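User: I'm new to structure prediction. If I give you an amino acid sequence, what do you actually give back? Let's try with this one:
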Amino acid sequence: MNRTEKFPGISRMFALFLLLGSVLLTGCSTVTVEKIKDKADQTLDAISTKTNIGNNPRDPLEGFNRAMFSFNDTVDTAVVKPVAQAYRSATPSFVQTGVGNFFSNIGDVWNAVNNLLQGRVNDSVTDVMRFAVNTTLGIGGLIDISSAAGMPKHNEDFGQTLGRWGVKSGPYLVLPVLGPSTVRDALATPVDMKGDLWTYKRPMHVRNIGTFVRLVDKRASVLDAGSLLEEAALDKYVFFRDAYLQRRAGQVNPDED
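Assistant: Good question. You get back a string of structure tokens that encode the predicted 3D arrangement of the chain. For your 257 residues, that looks like this:
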């Protein structure tokens, strides 16, 4: 005869004890999980209130935008940034300056068109003069003589032109590869591409090489600033979004505080 047969009462008591303990542990576990969940929800609500994450009327597409921002950041970290770092390390500074000046000079033509469309005739004339002087005396735009001569550089695009004529920016929008934008500026981007003289360069392989060098040089020029921004930002997405929207508002309406 084993012990349970000899003492059946003990067996039933032991089983009852196990059942009671199981119920108590389950109840405690449920209460603990619920408390943790409530605490987490309260914390997220507090963060949302303070940072406005998920509640920004300028960014109703935040879910999509964050996913696209993450994709762009991954591509930049894995490919674009290393290439830009290698370019900056291997290319003499005067060559980098020349590359930047060359494409900046080409951009002055589209700047002139947009300034004219915005009613800024004087700025448009300045852009035309910059292009003429830098193209001729500046060896095809490699040297920026115009800035030293007192003709300031402008940076205008069709999105700014639409904004000057009252077209609202619409929600914030992160484009694949191109990065931060708005609905208005995204719609204006194809027009800007058509207005870029380099898109008409022939033969095609020269144009493609130039486009690649242009993008790498542009990324290399902001390597240091990008590193500082990344270190300073608690939420990288929010930091870049707010900085872009503030800067863009200043570009569209420079006369407003």
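You can read the tokens as a compact description of the fold. Here is one thing that stands out. The chain has two domains: 3-51, 62-252.
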